[in-house]
Structures are given as C-alpha cells and as structure tokens.
TrEMBL record, chain A:
Keyword set, alphabetical order: ATP-binding, Nucleotide-binding, Transport
Primary gene name: glnQ
Gene3D superfamilies, alphabetized: P-loop containing nucleotide triphosphate hydrolases
Protein name per UniProt: Amino acid ABC transporter ATP-binding protein
Pfam families xref list: ABC_tran (PF00005)
Segment forming the signal sequence: none
Automatic annotation (TrEMBL), chain B:
GO cellular component, as recorded: ATP-binding cassette (ABC) transporter complex
Name by which UniProt lists this protein: Amino acid ABC transporter permease
Family to which this protein belongs: Belongs to the binding-protein-dependent transport system permease family. HisMQ subfamily.
Annotated segments matching region Disordered: 1-39
Domain of life assignment: Bacteria
Membrane protein topology class: Multi-pass membrane protein
GO MF term set: transmembrane transporter activity
InterPro entries: AA_ABC_transptr_permease_3TM, ArtM/GltK/GlnP/TcyL/YhdX-like, MetI-like, MetI-like_sf
Length: 247, 391
C-alpha cells in the first residue's frame, strides 16, 4: 500500500446480522486523490464510505484515516470526524435552523470558533456554492439542488481534509444535478481528497483519479477512468457499464 | 443499505398527477369549488337562501335539521332559564328558595372559602396577591419578547415574594403554616411546579429509555412502566403515608412537598412517553449528519434532536399538562385543600347545601379557564414553532 495514503482500508469486513455487506475490502487513497465508487445497488459502496467516518462500524480488518485507526475509542472517532466531511443523498440539513446556522453550528460547538469569525467564513463558502442570498432562509424553502449545495458548504465549514459524498445527486431532479456536480468539480480542482459514491459517469470520467467498482460487498476492479471505461477487466464490470451507459 | 428513506425527502417524480399535487389540490378543493362561483351568490342570498342550500337541500338533510332544531328547543331554553334568566344573583338563601333558576348567591357568599380555603380570613389578601402575581408571571412568560435572561431573575423574585406572602412571619406578616393553605393557590402551585419539574425530568427519562447503556435504559423503562401502571391516587397515597415510614426518625418532609413530588414523578412518566414519540419521529439522517459533523452526544441532543422533537410533541405535551392540572384535584386524598376540595367544603354549610350544583359549576368554570388558556397558548406556540419549518 502507498506510504502517503490518507485513507487506508485493509481487509475490512462487515455483516448486518447474517448479511455479508463488505467482504475483505482493501483500498488505499492518497492525499488529494479523487476516487469514484460505483456499482449496482446493494453492492456495499455506501456502507464502505460510511465506515470511513464510522457512521457504520466495521467488524473485521482495519481502517486508518490520516494515521488514526478507527476503533471503538470515541476520542479517535471524534478526531477523524473533524477531518472528514460528509454529504448525504438526502442532504440531511437541520430543518429548524437557517442556512447560515446550519453552516456555523458545528464550527462553533465542535471547533470552538467565534460566531462572527465563522459567519464570515460561512458566507464565503455560500458564495462559492453560489447561494449567498439564501443565507437566512430555512432549508425547507430551498430547492433540492440548493439544499445539497448548502450541505456541501456545511461540510466545508469544518475545514475537512477529506470529503465523502454518498450519492449526492441521486435524490435530485435531473435539472439540478449539474449545479451540484459543478460545485464538486470545482472542489476537486482545489486539491481536496474526495471519495464519491455516484452513478454520474460523466463526472467520474472528468474528475476521478481512479474508479472503484463494487459488487456484492467486494471490490471487483479499480483503475484510472480511461482503463475502466475503455478496457474493463471483468465481465461483471462490462455488464454494469453496459446497463448504465446505454441510456 | 442507506436505502431506508428515499421517499422521505426525495422530490416526488414529476408525473401528470404526482401524489403531492393531488393532495394539494384536494386540500384546496373546498375553497376553489365554493369561493369563485358562489361568492357573488352568497352575498346576494339572505340567510334563507343559505339555509335552503345547505340545511334543506335534500329530504334527509331537512329531516336532520328539523331534528336538531327540536333537540335545541328541548335543551337550550331550560338551560338558559336555569343559568341566567331565572337565576338568583344575590341575597339570602331564602331568596334562592323562591327563584326557579340557579342560586349564584352561594358563590357570592362562599367565594372566599372556595378560592382560599381555610387561610385566615383577614389575611386572604395575601394568597390573592400571590396568585395574581403568579398568574401575571405565567402570562408574561408566554410572551416571546420577554424570553430574556431577566425573566429568570423575575421568576426567582416572584417565587420569593410568593413564599413571603403565603407563609409570612417576616415584615410584620403573621405566620401561616402551609397546612392552612387551600383553594386556588394550592391548585396553581401544585400544578405549575409539578409540570415545571416534570418536564425536564421527562426529557431525561425519554433519552434514558433510548440510551445504549443497559443500566440507564432498564432504570428508565422500569420507572416509567411502574408509574404508568399505578393510579395517581395510589402514588399520592404512597408519597404521603408510606414514604415517611422510610425516613429516619425525626426527619419529616412537608405534606405539600410530598404530594408535589408524587405529582411530579407521575406526570414525568407520562410526559416521557410523549417526548419519546417525538424522538422517534426524527429521521435517522439528522443523527448521522450531526455525527458526521463531529457533534458530541449532548450537543447532538440539545442542538439538533430536542429542538425538533419537542416541536412535534407540543400537542401531546400540552394534553399532559392539562391533564396534570386537573389531576391536582386528587390531592384531596392526602388531606390537601385544592380548589375543588375547598368548593366541596363550601357546600357543607347547611344553609347553602341545596346549591352544591352551582358551586361545582363554578369550580368547573375555574378549571376550564386555566385549561382553555393552556390549550389556546399551545396552538399559538405550535404556529410559532412551525412558521419556518413547514415543508
């Protein structure tokens, strides 16, 4: 495995009762690398990235993030969660708080930042995701695409070193997918380490350094986008690509 | 795997008739159907026309309307006669005997006893002032503009002031032991204090019931199920009669305080279940988002979960508050004189005994005023809480 890996999974296994969700998953992601994870539904891709910030606990193997191993140790988990931002399929914004409050809550309470200081930073991030004028609205008043961009800004306000995206565009109306992908592409251009579960193959081709294909809880193959799209090694990958690229 | 709730927040697929649109148009239907075409007709037609359209439009409706009118004719005139028209409003019990209606004079004569029980007669301005102060502070606490730190200071001063007024013994006021208190002050203080103490306790119990620590969870489940499994009367009885047996000799806990503790624990158990309902309504994604941002358990609970959960459960919580307010009348079993008990005592005077119904109607009205205020306030609170978050 690479020496400068910021995320490292070694033979990670996970079960939901008797259901084997992850089977000996090993992957190494370097600093600044962009990895797109794809695969059919139920293949374990979401479970894998949710293990990286321990929203799910793995049962066997090792996960090491920025030199810290994820265990039951709450302190280690807290440390890693400060470094890792996450964007969810269903946005999961806090509906009782304004957009600005959504962004500033964690920096104030977790990082202990001054309200005025973080509000300034939050406004900067809202400008970057192109919705500074929505700062004082509530999430319920925004469109899906706007909500997801707020969610990205919220994660960025914690100054993470790694960003995890769990199907960020799957719950969006088609016309809103682009505005979210544009923000993600911009973020990738700034050198952020990104792990992204998505079915947006155009985005994968354009942004990813490597693509990981999963099925039935295992990594079937991984490689550069060129290799993956032009010359897939396994039959399973070809079949998946055939289905997803047809339409 | 993370496929638990795509329908929760995902935009509904845009079809010709999406469920959301169908629901929206269904809700709007009455206004749409009746407003534009009939608005002109409504103003033109007099009540007769309206009645013809709405009350006599079919034979069945006509029959139902006539039946209702007949029932009203049976009930309303005698009621109005008894309550108001033929009632006797002042004077002696002899005057009442001659009147055909209610004898409201009994309230005029006995209101001091009903409101203040056996508190020394000449000192009854003190509980009156204490109650007025208390009710004024409760009202003020409901006003949003007053939700400032000084409100807490004002409450401390109010409680001290009430204590001084009720007990006395300082500043030239004669000392009145609290077993002579009665009536409205007892009802108000017991209900408000037990609700105010039970509410935070119920939140802890609800959280504890969901805790991942088995000892805490078992304790909370055990407490809630025990309290919910027995009648309030027996809780009060135990607090009043059995609890002192467990205390070391020479140590006594005031009877009023023991009843308050019993009421508080009982109410907390019921409230905890209402709060738990709210906790369960919070989507898993909210917990996950808070976790992913690195919030600790208490930060997550206080900043994300409870603010949302408590909004959802305003109706059942207020329901429980109202119930607790009325349940204070059960403290009569441990010898405390609440408003209803004091009213009962008022009916024991031989001269006025025939007019117990009037006394109970009046006591009921007093309870109704407080409960109805709570209900109206909760509706306002609900609107305030949902103003921005309605999706």
């Amino acid at each position: 495995m690479t020496a400068n890996a910021i995320i490292e999974l070694r033979k990670v296994g996970k079960w939901y009762n008797s259901y084997h969700a992850l089977r000996d998953v090993s992957i190494s992601i370097g600093k600044g690398e962009k990895v797109v994870v794809c695969g059919p539904s139920g293949s374990g891709k979401s479970t894998m990235i949710r293990c990286i910030n321990r929203l799910e606990a793995h049962q066997t193997g090792h996960i090491i993030v920025d030199g810290i191993e994820l265990t039951d140790d709450v302190k280690a988990v807290e440390k890693i969660r400060r470094k890792v931002g996450m964007v969810f399929q269903n946005f999961n914004l806090f509906p009782h708080l304004t957009v600005l409050q959504n962004l500033t809550l964690a920096p104030i309470w977790v990082r202990g930042m001054a309200k005025s200081e973080i509000e300034e930073i939050a406004m900067m991030y809202l400008k970057r995701v192109r919705i500074p004028d929505q700062a004082h609205k509530f999430p319920g008043q925004l469109s899906g695409g706007q909500q997801q961009r707020v969610a990205i800004a919220r994660a960025l306000c914690m100054r993470p070193e790694i960003m995890l995206f769990d199907e960020p565009t799957s719950a969006l109306d088609p016309e809103m997918v682009k505005e979210v992908l544009d923000v993600m592409t911009e973020l990738a251009g700034e050198g952020m380490t990104m792990v992204c579960v998505t079915h947006e193959m155009g985005f994968a081709r354009q942004v990813a350094d490597s693509i990981v294909f999963m099925a039935e809880g295992s990594i079937i193959e991984s490689g550069s986008p060129a290799e993956f799209f032009e010359n897939p090694k396994s039959e399973r990958t070809r079949q998946f690509l055939g289905q997803i690229l047809e339409h | 795997m993370s496929k638990h709730s795509p329908a929760d927040q995902a935009p509904i697929p845009t079809g010709p008739v999406s469920p959301a649109r169908w629901a929206a148009s269904y809700e709007e239907e009455p206004t749409q159907a009746s407003a534009p075409p009939q608005a002109n007709g409504m103003t033109a037609l007099k009540p007769f026309g309206w009645a013809k359209d709405n009350l006599f439009n079919t034979p069945l409706n006509a029959a139902l309307t006539l039946a209702c009118l007949f029932l009203l004719w049976l009930v309303v005139p005698p009621m109005a006669n008894w309550l108001l028209l033929k009632a006797s409003w002042s004077g002696s019990s002899e005057a009442c005997r001659e009147a055909a209606g209610a004898c409201w004079s009994v309230i005029v004569v006995k209101h001091r006893l009903i409101f203040f029980g056996t508190y020394p007669y000449d000192e009854q301005w003190r509980p009156f002032l204490a109650c007025a102060l208390f009710v004024a502070m409760l009202g003020a606490s409901g006003v949003r503009a007053f939700w400032r730190p000084w409100l807490a200071v004002a409450w401390v001063l109010t409680l001290v002031g009430m204590g001084v007024l009720m007990w006395g013994g300082v500043a030239g006021l004669t000392y009145v032991p609290n077993d002579r208190w009665g009536g409205l002050p007892i009802t108000l203080m017991l209900s408000v204090f037990s609700i105010a103490l039970a509410f935070p306790l119920s939140i802890l119990l609800a959280l504890g019931r969901q805790s991942s620590l088995p000892a805490i969870r078992t304790f909370c489940v055990g407490f809630i199920e025990t309290m919910r499994g027995v009648p309030l009367v027996s809780v009060l009885f135990m607090a009043s009669v059995m609890f002192p047996l467990f205390l070391p000799e020479g140590v006594t806990v005031d009877k009023l305080l023991r009843a308050l503790a019993g009421m508080t624990l009982f109410t907390a158990a019921y409230l905890a279940e209402a709060v738990r309902g709210g906790l369960q309504a919070i989507p898993k994604g909210q917990y996950e988002a808070a976790d992913a941002l690195g919030l600790s358990y208490w930060q997550k609970t206080m900043l994300i979960v409870l603010p949302q959960a408590l909004r959802i459960v305003i109706p059942p919580i207020v329901n429980q508050f109202i119930s607790a307010f009325k349940d204070t009348s059960l403290v009569t079993i441990v010898g405390l004189y609440d408003l209803l008990t004091a009213a009962t005592v008022a009916t024991t005077d031989p001269e006025w005994r025939p007019y117990f119904a009037e006394v109970y109607v009046f006591a009921g009205l007093m309870f109704w005023i407080f409960c109805f205020s709570m209900s109206r306030y909760s509706q306002w609170l609900e609107r305030l809480a949902n103003r921005y978050t309605r999706r």
